[in-house]
Amino acid sequence: MATEPEPSEKLRKLPSRCSYMFPLQGQERARAYAWFRGWLPEVAVMCDRIDLLLGDNKRDFRWIRVREKFGAPSFHYQLEGKARFAVNLHRPHDVRRVDCAPRETFDPVAVAVQEVILETEVELRSHCIICGAPATITNAQGPWASLCAFHSAADLPTDPADTMGPVSKAARLAEEDVFEP
Question: Taking the model in full, what pTM does it have?
Answer without folding.
Answer: 0.83
